[in-house]
Amino acid sequence: MTSKNTICLWYDGTALDAATFYAETFPDSAVTAVHHAPGDYPDGKQGDVLTVEFTVLGIPCLGLNGGATFKHNEAFSFQVATDDQAETDRLWDAIVGNGGQESACGWCKDKWGLSWQITPRALTDAVNDPDRAAAKRAFDAMMEMRKIDIAAIEAARRG
After folding, report:
1. Does residue 143 contact residue 136 with C-beta atoms inside 8 Å?
2. Taken in order 24, 104, 8, 15, is the CA torsion positive or negative?
3. Tens digits of per-residue pLDDT, 19-29?
4. Which of 78, 87, 32 is nearest to 55 (CA)?
């Protein structure tokens, strides 16, 4: 690993599957190394995949096959800024359609339990509009959504 700071994500034996999915789904993402255990460990055997080095949108990550002890939760998420509805739909549908689940306000979880915020730049611009009434209308519209609908956000912003 060459990065000084790397996000370590805990998996129950599925780190390589998850890293491969991320590499296939997100631009500027790749599986860069797979490391096998040199000996037996509490949740695996010698030769099992122990860690996987990968990047997600250029962010260095390490997948650790540590077992079932720890689960992902919403306290950590990747927030992905999208440029248009097509990109928003593609990423959301890839995550949810691959065994994941929808949540509210642009949040979803992948099948490994990792949370993602698929956030169109148009939404960020709308809720930060200097016209606070326009920002509130956009925010209120977002609060009713699962996957973000950019056209509906922009219509709410306009009033």
Report:
1. no
2. negative
3. 999 999 999 99
4. 32
